[in-house]
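Box 3.1. Reading complex inputs
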Amino acid sequence: MNIPANLRYTSSHEWIRKEIDGTLTVGITDHAQSALGDLVFIELPKVGRSLDAGEACAVVESVKAASDVYSPVAGTVVAANAEVSGAPEKVNADAFGAWLFRLQPVQADAVDALLDARGYQSVIG
Amino acid sequence: MPNSTVLNAVHRSSGARMVDFGGWDMPVNYGSQIDEHHAVRADAGMFDVSHMRVVDVAGAGARAFLRYALANNVDKLTVPGKALYSCLLREDGRVLDDLIVYFLREDLFRLVVNAGTADKDIAWLNALVTRREAALTLTPRTDLAMIAVQGPNARARVWQAIAGSEAATSALAPFNAASVVDHGVEYFVARTGYTGEDGFEIAVPATRAEALWRALAGHGVKPCGLGARDTLRLEAGMNLYGQDMSEDVTPLEAGLAWTVDMKSPRDFVGKAALAANAPRATLVGLLLEDGGGVLRAHQRVQTAAGDGEITSGTFSPTLQKSIALARVPHGVAVGDRVEVEVRDKLLAARVVKPPFVRNGRALV
């Protein structure tokens, strides 16, 4: 299973990329999209919404199931990727490219406490 | 350890994602459930349905027994090979299972029942045999595997895969079956299915199932998992036992009045209860008009006549919309607007008459 080394992860299967401007880009992992199957609906958080760490803030639905997406750290939503809500299958095709939303974190270093690729690998076994 | 079919290793080596389905380790998809769905609507796909149980009912009184045991009337079966869909009811009219019964000979009928209910059904039927003092033998045919081949090109692919099958089955009308023997192997080929497409369901000796699966694959039939089977049957407006009906409802409350023969003077298990008790609700189709989510089982349906509940819901790959079956109060009519509670929102849906899709065409 593909787990890029330059990203951070959560045990609830989100990936997080630290951008140069300090924001965090969030998506779901390849493992998550594969387990869900063909995605047909994605609901994203509104820009400006403030989120707690671990708060359910987006929904991804496949043909067979609905699954919440959780905010990896506390922060404010600064962007939502309308491209994936219009074409959910893009997440199946490229889970690490098709991001869901971007956060301005409350604490800049909170992301460093998240799982690295090796840690996530041990989560999914 | 869940049960596994004789094709389990074939599924795993084909990269299937496996799930526990009613105690059986079954493929949910081999990659993309939606691709598999479209293959069946446009070409040909195959499903391992060996978890379903074939039960042969043998003995001189087989017809008389089934006439009493089943809600549909086996007297409609006059030509050998003819099949009938029926519910198996409790005395109070609630649904124990749904099944297909085939008339093979006057002293031999064949039932195909659901996997999760097979043991319960057999125990129920054996008790009924004892009570009726019928001289019958019920034989679960665990020596057979079953492969459903479905789609507009399904029959032609089967004819390529099994020598002699075209001559034996090309004139077979829907809901009829025939036996085909090729190289000493007997195939029981029925023109039935659970997808809303043409095709065959084939019972084959378990020892020959893998060879048949590989032959069909070699002729371009796409392996399909239970995921696609569920979206296909729901588009076709077909009930799933345990979801759209159960021991909590009667067939009249599950959209299956057409399968219950109340007109003939014949008595059957559950008839008195059905005649005495008016149905409490009705099963309808729903088409989601808003975006904003996917209809799923157990979501609340708000109607002018009161609340109901979705029994099966999914995203329809053919319609590119979410569809559902829902049990709602009487008075809800085709064309009505209702609202469905999806997470924290109420989404608008239209009441429609299933099926949603048949033979590749949208009907709603």
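In summary: Chain B touches chain A through 18 residues (CB under 8 Å).
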